Amino acid sequence: MAQKPSIPKGTRDFGQQEMAERNYIFDTVRSVFRACGYAQIETPAQENLSTLLGKYGDEGDKLLFRILNSGDAFANVDQSKPLTPQVCEKGLRYDLTVPFARYVVQHQNELSFPFKRFQIQPVWRADRPQKGRYREFYQCDVDAIGSKSQLCELELIQIIDKVFAKLDINVLVKINNRKVLTGLAEICGFPDKVVDITVAIDKLDKIGLDAVKAEMMEKGLTEQAVSVLEPILTLSGNNDEKIAAMRSIMASSETGMKGLDELEELFGYIKAAGINTATEIDLSLARGLNYYTGAIFEVKALDWQIGSICGGGRYDNLTGIFGLPDMSGVGVSFGADRIYDVLKGLDKFPKDLRSSTRILFANMGQNELLYILPLVSSLRDAGVSVEIYPDSSKLKKQFDYADRKAIPFLSITGENEVAQGIVNIKNLESGEQRSFPKDDVKSMIEWMA
Amino acid sequence: MAQKPSIPKGTRDFGQQEMAERNYIFDTVRSVFRACGYAQIETPAQENLSTLLGKYGDEGDKLLFRILNSGDAFANVDQSKPLTPQVCEKGLRYDLTVPFARYVVQHQNELSFPFKRFQIQPVWRADRPQKGRYREFYQCDVDAIGSKSQLCELELIQIIDKVFAKLDINVLVKINNRKVLTGLAEICGFPDKVVDITVAIDKLDKIGLDAVKAEMMEKGLTEQAVSVLEPILTLSGNNDEKIAAMRSIMASSETGMKGLDELEELFGYIKAAGINTATEIDLSLARGLNYYTGAIFEVKALDWQIGSICGGGRYDNLTGIFGLPDMSGVGVSFGADRIYDVLKGLDKFPKDLRSSTRILFANMGQNELLYILPLVSSLRDAGVSVEIYPDSSKLKKQFDYADRKAIPFLSITGENEVAQGIVNIKNLESGEQRSFPKDDVKSMIEWMA
């Protein structure tokens, strides 16, 4: 009996239409990355588990896909010890950041720093599949490593601005700084409570000021500590005003003031560069808190309800674990699947993505084929995407093929046309039809443009 | 101690230069595939082992990379039975053909046939790594399924012709037909010796006619059988003459005559379509003999010593194993790594692939930065790839950066230029330098074009 074919859960096939739409996203980010001088790299799907393990927390280690050693993996195993580490030495890439860090360390002598790279490749996670969460998905990462300049942060915001302008998605860029969060924890006397404080602040919109204060005290902050933070919770005004207000509160924290310096410098650049996208300080922004050391970014779509569609930040010691200390970097990752959902939801994909084929030549028989073959070659040479229906089937079937592939032009060139040395082309949308001398490729192209 | 980073053997990192070169190959094949109306699809890296096993022979099954089941894979294993099948249900894609067959069967109701697809994705094989053989490599496959017309074969030859013309590689397309090989075996009375006969014919150039005849007899053919085949071994003339000669010998084999009909039809189309690439009947062409049922193709580079750089053929029942019988298809696969080696060897990569960045703005300090930021935005908006050096390092260091990245233009805009409202741009190759009014983006672009 024949097998019923299927694919592993959480994975996807992409057909013509989805590929065209996904390529539209990838091509857009790629063109913007290139316009800013970022170099594309690719790393292998498989990395040594020694590279991957311990980089994503215990939960991440569990979600790694492990590859069984090739040959007879179980030949010399010690049954009294855990088997997995004995039979698996490699795993599938879990994200693009750790492979990037590994790449930079491994190739440090070939690279010129600051090294600006982008990478668009799939990653794999053995997560429980659910709506919008897959076991294989693409990441689009762009990072600059080897400079502490806030110009790198600016450039990422310029990239975000340009990408979403090209995709016609209204977004808000939320900006935070890990050093400012450290400063908050320091000035209230609980330097080890950064995460608790940030998580509480994050709930301000939902649960209100009093509840946030109550939560902070539940987490062990004193009343006095909470009163120190209260002015931060009620910050208002534009970004400059917020920075100024925080300066007066945070003067006692050297780290906090450094963070405010960075924010101020960055917003100065943003103003000078003429960024159109709205940018906003958001102290509750806490993504990757154990990881980032400076700026933290998150991008929200304004007209479609969905999680962040792009995010990232600065990490001061990403490559340290691979033996290269003091390499500061900053990067963001574009979420292709969520961006896809936003474009679908807002119906913002360009309309002409559907078919790549411009004209179908119907198959009217052997003689007619020999007549049109040179023309088909000439049209393709001129950059027109052309198909010939391969079989001399009923015209209805050939029409249906053009229709299902959304091919806009059809040529039915039969024996009459061959006798007259002409070619008929029909615009399948308007119904309009025209005849051309067989060799007048130029006029045909103009008419189909 | 820090880990020394490395990647699994047989896998590769691709840096900026290699990526640009590889993308040049991928972009070229993709543009040609699209010009002929082929739709891009992508399938997941992981397939169920039930999809993959048994499709590549015993050797292939051994070379599959297996993925350890997630969760505790060893929780309920029966130690008395082989462990691998109990702990691995998925494997990494071994080629693009089997996933394509699986895709066609799984999505048959969404597709319009004939279905023309291309697919450019990596595949993984646990082969012993050696020069030119990797455990992860890209395949570029293009197939048409659902039509028996020789126009499909023609279209693949048109694609081959166009791809290698664009890449500027001189090639020879060798063409054979499995039905003709069957015919040969039939007319000499040994229909089960197709492989032996073909393997012997393949040695003609190397070992000569007598040795080939001797080998055939070693394999069990009678003297009389060999004498029937002898005129085939000494075939000469052009493709039409070869076909005509074979017709007179092969009249008693229906399958053989059908194969000759197909070859004759195909060469008729090739002539009509004006294919420039040399095409040649080669009866020793035996790739995938257990697999192909009609045309067999192989492409050789004429000016560089290397194995075939593209190949494929027609298979009449690829999807049968997944429950969809009578789907005839034909396709070829372009070997990106070998094509890369040929382009490198012949020094045929375009010279301008190296840097994507057109101009670097040196970092002369805070004031100057604020002065150039709007200009940088305008240049990028106009499609120019621009970088600003992020740190105000010594000019020597900034120069070196431009040099190592092969950036052709440099702007050093200091306080004098700011005072005058101008921008200086230097052509780093010619040494020529020019000043522009700060806002005259158009002239800058023209000068750098």
User: What is the terminal separation of chain A in angstroms?
Assistant: 50 Å
Number of helices of chain A: 18
By secondary-structure content and strand pairing, the structural class of chain A works out as: alpha+beta
| Strand elements of chain A, count | 16
Largest sheet of chain A: 8 strands, mixed
| Interface with most residues | A-B, 112 and 111 residues
What's the alpha carbon Rg of chain A, rounded to whole Å? 29 Å
Overall mean pLDDT of chain A stands at: 93
Strand percentage of chain A lies at 15-25%
Oligomer: homodimer
| Global morphology of chain A | elongated
**What ranges of chain A have pLDDT less than 50 throughout 5 or more consecutive residues?**
none
User: Going across the major beta sheet of chain A, what is the strand order?
Assistant: 1-5-6-11-10-9-7-8
Instruction: Please bin the fraction of helical residues of chain A.
Output: 40-55%
